[in-house]
UniProtKB/TrEMBL annotation:
Domain Nitroreductase: 35-203
Keywords: Flavoprotein, FMN, Oxidoreductase
Pfam entry (one): Nitroreductase
Protein name (record): Nitroreductase family protein
Organism from which the protein derives: Roseovarius phycicola
Domain of life from the UniProt record: Bacteria
Listed InterPro entries: Nitroreductase, Nitroreductase-like, Nitroreductase/BluB
């Protein structure tokens, strides 16, 4: 977290000054890349170098955040025993979820995705990344420091992380057992950090599948509206 206590403007660094044509080419290439992103549950045993994981997390750490408080923490786990503990605890919560906690409507919504109680990807994937949201910060003297827009900030950072992992040729699956307090105990994280998501990360098996329903994306006109100034005949 930044230690700056007063506003000090700096010249904009790392400027990207593209022409409109260059920008359109780049953003179309980015769209093409993201259209190849898929969530999977079938992970190969091919190892993933630690440096790829840490570099992706470093990219996530560049995300904007409320008051620049950077209220996130990422626990990257490759230890098989820890992954097994997480899977066991997650499946225990999932058993309760599918046995009545979720309700019929929620279960019906999940049916096309093919999810269930068993979560083998939590031990098959070479890496798990647990994302924590820091409810507040803790100064060196132990005093609390308020954090602002925590869910929004952590959500942006998580999106950047998923994109970075995809750019590295990896696949991931977002997993949110509820409740997730067991992750604090398993990973020895402080109580002011709230676990919000587990990402299973790795390479896909040769016979990996994705749910057909997951390939159905809303068309652009359903997720966007344009609000532009009206042009007059003189303008045209």
């Amino acid at each position: 977290m930044t230690s700056e206590t007063s506003y000090r403007p700096l010249p904009l660094a790392d400027r990207r000054d593209l022409t409109d044509a260059e920008g359109l080419v780049d953003v179309r290439q980015y769209l093409d890349l993201m259209r190849t992103r898929h969530s999977i549950r079938d992970y190969s045993n091919r190892p993933v170098p630690q440096e790829i994981i840490t570099t992706a997390i470093a990219a996530a750490g560049t995300a904007p955040s409320g008051a620049n408080q950077q209220p996130w923490f990422f626990a990257a786990i490759s230890d098989p025993e820890l992954k097994a503990q997480i899977r066991e605890a997650a499946e225990a919560e999932e058993e309760k979820f599918y046995s009545g906690r979720a309700g019929d409507a929620w279960l019906a919504a999940l049916e096309p995705i093919g999810t269930g109680v068993e979560k083998p990807h939590l031990t098959q994937a070479p890496w798990l990344i647990v994302i924590f949201a820091q409810r507040y910060g803790v100064a060196p003297d132990g005093t609390r420091q308020k954090h602002y827009y925590v869910p929004e900030s952590v959500g942006i950072a998580t999106g950047i992380l998923i994109t970075a992992l995809h750019a590295a040729g990896l696949y991931c699956l977002t997993h949110t057992p509820n409740p997730m307090g067991f992750l604090n105990q398993t990973l020895d994280r402080p109580e002011h950090e709230k676990p919000v998501m587990i990402l299973a990360v790795g390479h896909a098996t040769e016979d990996a599948t994705v749910p057909a329903a997951a390939n159905i994306k809303k068309p652009l006109e359903e997720i966007m509206a344009l609000y532009q100034a009206q042009t007059s005949e003189k303008d045209t």
